[in-house]
């Protein structure tokens, strides 16, 4: 136990030392956002309703401040200003998402909405003129509402086919504009929250049953889009495509074998649920075994985890050109089995999570400031899936005050970027992109406008949605220019 405490202390103190190395020449810095969080214009120029428009309008009580994404940061009208800020910060890339319902208002591929297409064409033109590379997500949680209402959303396998049709249309429309593609953002949030614990839209509570059905369909959707890209567009587009998977880093709560195993199990249920089918093939064995066993004990006629056919396993395996990672938190993990009668994703994992008392962050429970957790996670990815290029597609610091002198956010970026340097130079991780969440304040889903994550503030009571730089914008700009985190950089 003593050695274990010493080990934790080393980690904790180690994070205070900022790595003095210069980022490699090919390393890229950018910022990320998502259509439903910044665009607004929710029903403008032919855009259709999404499950998030629907949730916010019908159930404002589910959103912290009762607001919706109707206007958000108004980037639908102010995108030129946003791009100018990205350029002024000297950033290499800008991650954005295309709203499915702006391109195909009902979600079905029968009618392409030209004004919606034009919006993204204009945005890409603006980025090109600014010398900024677009990194484009096709699905960032905003399912067209008719597909939820008429088909049951991601619980219906035919939605995977409709997503593939939508992806094909986007690859065709934006073949000249976009070279760095993302199919789906954070499938775990879409499924385990949206159809599991019933928090995110469409807020269906069926944990341990429907969320796994969603996981299966969304993996098929991703794979179909990947193969369409591979077969029909790769040759002309000459770009790359992957799915963004988010995960917490799960650190063993003690050096006991049971807690070490519990932490690995947590990683497999969280990251592996999506990473294993894509990188290795099929669900992780521990997920197959535990859900089958717990289903049997609870009297289910078969496992609550749906199966993939041999053909589907092969079809999904290998559908990545890089690893795209979103990361916001670290948790400590102890083994803890839930009673078998309690179905549910978290009970299937069988863990108890906790935080070190010295960790800061954690308001609202979904993030912590633990830079070494990112480094451990990157090492785990390499150990588990091989030496694959990794792009960090989201990492950022939320606060509830919107303070302009945001020193905590600066310390956060400094710590996490230092962990990136450690991973690159100490651990040999092929890490090439860091994408901060984010450039401007936005609509934070169930948090509405009560969480602030922008390096620029947005005045949400101002009809003009005025933007203003926080202290972190200046810090980040200087860092990008210098390409290192300390005064005396080491080559
Ligand atoms: C799934 O979608 C198909 C259309 O492709 C539809 O016929 C079927 O009823 C849907 N299933 C459910 C359960 O809604
Ligand atoms: C986790 O396990 C360790 C070692 O057995 C123990 O000291 C600690 O109290 C446990 N934490 C929780 C929250 O149960
Ligand atoms: C990182 O991955 C890319 C893409 O596979 C490859 O071209 C590059 O050589 C790799 N870099 C290192 C340092 O391994
Ligand atoms: C936000 O905008 C409102 C309305 O224009 C204005 O009254 C207020 O002073 C602004 N707030 C800040 C912090 O600039």
Automatic annotation (TrEMBL):
Residues 1-16 form the signal peptide. Pfam families: Glyco_hydro_1 (PF00232). InterPro entries: GH, Glyco_hydro_1. This is Beta-glucosidase. One of its GO terms (molecular function) is beta-glucosidase activity. Belongs to the glycosyl hydrolase 1 family. One of its GO terms (biological process) is carbohydrate metabolic process. Gene3D superfamilies: Glycosidases. Homodimer. The keyword Signal applies. Keywords: Glycoprotein, Glycosidase, Hydrolase, Signal.
């Amino acid at each position: 136990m003593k050695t274990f405490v010493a080990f934790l202390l080393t980690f904790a103190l180690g994070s205070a030392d900022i790595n003095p190395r210069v980022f490699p020449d090919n390393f890229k810095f950018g910022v990320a956002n998502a259509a439903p969080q910044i665009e607004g214009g929710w029903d403008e120029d032919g855009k259709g309703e999404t499950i998030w428009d629907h949730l916010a309008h019908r159930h404002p009580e589910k959103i912290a401040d009762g607001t919706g994404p109707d206007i958000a940061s108004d980037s639908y009208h102010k995108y030129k200003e946003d791009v100018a800020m990205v350029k002024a910060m000297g950033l290499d890339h800008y991650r954005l998402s295309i709203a499915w319902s702006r391109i195909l208002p009902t979600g079905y591929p029968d009618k392409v909405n030209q004004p919606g297409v034009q919006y993204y064409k204009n945005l890409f033109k603006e980025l090109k003129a600014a010398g900024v590379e677009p990194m484009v997500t096709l699905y960032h949680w905003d399912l067209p509402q008719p597909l939820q209402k008429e088909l049951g959303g991601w619980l219906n396998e035919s939605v995977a086919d409709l997503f593939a049709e939508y992806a094909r249309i986007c690859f065709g429309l934006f073949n000249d504009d976009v070279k760095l593609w993302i199919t789906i953002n954070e499938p775990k949030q879409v499924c385990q929250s949206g159809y599991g614990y019933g928090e995110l839209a469409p807020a269906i509570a069926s944990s341990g049953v429907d969320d796994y059905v969603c996981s299966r369909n969304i993996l098929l959707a991703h794979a179909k889009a990947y193969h369409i890209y591979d077969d029909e567009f790769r040759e002309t587009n000459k770009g790359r495509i992957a799915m963004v998977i988010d995960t917490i880093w799960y650190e063993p709560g003690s050096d006991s074998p049971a807690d070490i195993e519990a932490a690995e199990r947590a990683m497999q249920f969280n990251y592996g649920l999506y990473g294993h089918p894509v990188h290795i093939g099929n669900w992780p064995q521990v997920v197959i075994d535990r859900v089958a066993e717990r289903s049997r004990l609870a009297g289910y006629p078969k496992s609550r985890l749906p199966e993939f056919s041999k053909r589907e396993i092969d079809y999904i395996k290998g559908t990545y050109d890089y690893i795209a990672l979103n990361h916001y938190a670290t948790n400590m993990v102890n083994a803890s089995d839930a009673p078998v009668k309690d179905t549910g994703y978290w009970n299937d994992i069988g863990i108890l999570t906790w935080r070190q008392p010295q960790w800061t962050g954690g308001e609202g429970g979904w993030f912590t400031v633990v830079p070494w957790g990112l480094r451990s996670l990157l090492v785990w990815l390499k150990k588990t899936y091989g030496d694959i290029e990794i792009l960090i597609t989201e990492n950022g610091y939320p606060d509830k005050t919107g303070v302009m002198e945001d020193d905590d956010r600066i310390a956060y970026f400094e710590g996490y970027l230092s962990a990136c340097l450690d991973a690159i130079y100490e651990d040999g991780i092929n890490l090439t992109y860091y994408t901060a969440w984010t450039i401007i304040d936005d609509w934070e889903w169930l948090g509405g406008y009560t969480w602030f994550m922008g390096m620029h503030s947005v005045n949400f009571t101002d009809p003009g949605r005025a933007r203003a730089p926080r202290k972190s914008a200046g810090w980040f700009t200087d860092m990008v220019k210098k390409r290192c985190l300390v005064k005396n950089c080491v080559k």
